[in-house]
Amino acid sequence: MSLPKPRWVMAGLLFAAASVAIHYEVKVRIHESEDSGVVTKMGNLKVGEAAPDFSLDDLANQPWTLASLRGQKVVVLDFWATWCGPCRMAMPALQTLHRDLEGRGLEIVGVNQAESADRVRNFLNLKKYTFRTVLDRRADVAHAYGVRAIPVLVVVDKRGMIRRIQAGYAKENADLRRLLEKLVLEP
Question: How many angstroms separate the CA atoms of 51 and 54, rounded?
């Protein structure tokens, strides 16, 4: 049974309006901010509150949990996908942070969104990215974190508290680097 034509048209118009509103919010308003997408709240996440724990498989099909690094490392969660242009643009800077700060207590964790392990592994090998990557196969973690568009970075300190949320790609990452260099020094 199909909807009568006026209802179908109205449903289509409502869908289009919602899509434009979400696109505007994520792609325009966030990028117009002075902080290049830095927000204090996203979904149920808030800077200064505990990051929700989760467990996902890595590319070797081994489980990895956020809680496994609590008390040991600062964690940058990068929600991304291989098909996402802004995600790919952000990754060289993340690799540089990984290379420069991993020995000082930083862990970059790419949280891939709903792609096969083979596709992700091939992409990472081709680009020579060496930071940890886990597979959010059904985007359950992205949903729990309030991620509606990618890329999104979430910085979690050693105590498990959210210290920064960044939606979208930011060409300049000097503020992020300064924050991470400060956080790795904290007990």
Answer: 9
Strand pairing partners for 76? 108, 155
DSSP structure string for the chain: ----HHHHHHHHHHHHHHHHHHHIIIIIIHHHSTTTTEESEETTEETTSBPPP-EEEETTS-EEEGGGGTTT-EEEEEEE-TT-HHHHHHHHHHHHHHHHHGGGTEEEEEEEES--HHHHHHHHHHHT--SEEEEETTSHHHHHTT--SS-EEEEE-TTSBEEEEEES--S--HHHHHHHHHHTT--
Residue 63: cis peptide before it, omega within 30 degrees of 0: no
Q: Which residue has the higher pLDDT, 8 or 166?
A: 166
> CA–CA distance from 90 to each of 12, 56, 64 (Å)?
34, 22, 23
Q: Which of 108, 43, 57 is nearest to 78 (CA)?
A: 108
Please count the structural domains in the chain: 2
Give the orientation angle of helix 85-101 with respect to helix 174-183, to 10 degrees.
40
Residue 70 main-chain phi, psi, to 5 deg = -60, 135
- CATH code of the domain covering residue 158: 3.40.30.10
Which structural domain, as residue segments, surrounds residue 8? Answer: 1-32
Give 119-151 pLDDT, tens digit per residue.
999 999 999 999 999 999 999 999 999 999 999
